Amino acid sequence: MRTFQEIKENYKFTELEAQTLKSLGPLVEPHADRIVSDFYNLFLQIPDTAGFLAEAQQERLRVLHRAWLLALFQGPYDDRYFQRLQRIGHAHVRIGLSAHFVYVGMNHIRLQLLRLIETEVEPKAQEAAAGALEKILDLNLDVIARTYHEEEVRRIFVSHRLDNALIRFAQRFTFGLDLLLVVGLIGLSLGVVAMIVSDVSQIFTGSPSHALVAAMGSLLVLWMVIELLEAEIDRLKGGAFKIHLFVGAAMVAFIRKILVATMAHETPEMLAIYLAGVFVLGSIYWLVSRAEARRG
After folding, report:
1. What is the predicted pLDDT for the residue at 129?
2. Is the pLDDT of residue 10 over 80?
């Protein structure tokens, strides 16, 4: 933020204007209570601001506002004055008062004081008095409004940093889950290989026909697990998520169940249920595959 000296230089606020303002102090002070009262009456009539002006706080706020008003014409316009304006701005930000009403309030004060200059100041001195008044009010509004901007930037910055941190955490967490899924698929494939070995051994030690069918079903499952593993590795490298493979895995599991069930002499009703499951999953597989092909 610019220093108050830089702000005064940019506004070309001169020592002569500071002296002009100080000369207006004795003229403004007798009207200070009325100006402050009119100011609060204005905002008490506005629903959006009346809620900030609880009756228990009004007396304290009126005293503070009167002190600010008289300080316009007292000086010194130094760093302490600048810091006081900053505190006023931060107080408004803290309570959640819209910057719009800061401008409304400053406009009201401006009009009140300009009318006072028209009636209390000699005509030949009115232009200089009005110019000095306009400048000090603009300086005040500049500093107070700037605190709103700085607070908004700070909140956006904090929110942006928080968003980035959450996104980075979510990305790392998701990547960790993907790695865990790959490890799980590797473990599953090893389990399926063991199951195939067991089924093949049954060909020589048990029922050959039953073991052969079971081995064929296990090979189907192994094929699907390999497909899932390759798809997941591809996704870790930036590829698309292939939903149809997971639907296919469920369908293969049903097909294996049917193959085994035919040898286990399941009831016709149970076989019909298995076949219906394969039909439903097959339909879903077809629809999902078409949708993914269109996206690709």
Report:
1. 92
2. yes
Number of domains in the chain: 2
Host domain of residue 10: 4-161
CATH number of the domain at 137, please. 1.10.490.10
Handedness of CA 157, 160, 164, 170 (dihedral sign): positive
Is residue 183 in a domain?
Answer: no
Tokens of 267: 């009831």
- Does one domain contain both 243 and 115? no
Q: Which helix (H) or strand (E) holds 152?
A: helix 123-205
Nearest to 195 by CA among 236, 253, 114: 253
Q: How many other C-beta atoms are found inside a 10 Å radius of the C-beta of residue 295?
A: 7
Query: What tens digit of pLDDT does each residue of 148-186 get?
Result: 777 766 766 655 566 667 777 777 887 787 778 778 878
Q: What is the 3-state secondary structure (H, E, C) of 155-199?
A: HHHHHHHHHHHHHHHHHHHHHHHHHHHHHHHHHHHHHHHHHHHHH
Mean pLDDT of 73-99: 84
Among 96, 126, 161, the domain-final residue is: 161
More confident residue, 236 or 111: 111
**Region 209-231: what's the mean pLDDT?**
74
Residue 136 contacts residue 117 (beta carbons within 8 Å): no
3-state secondary structure of 296: coil
pLDDT tens digits, 241-250: 667 666 777 7
Do both 10 and 122 map to the same domain?
yes
263-272 in b/e burial notation, b at 16+ Cβ within 10 A? eeebeeeeee
Q: Which of 104, 133, 161 is the last residue of a domain?
A: 161
Joined together, the tokens standing for residue 94 give 């803290």
Q: Do residues 104 and 73 make contact, with C-beta atoms less than 8 angstroms apart? A: no
pTM: 0.53
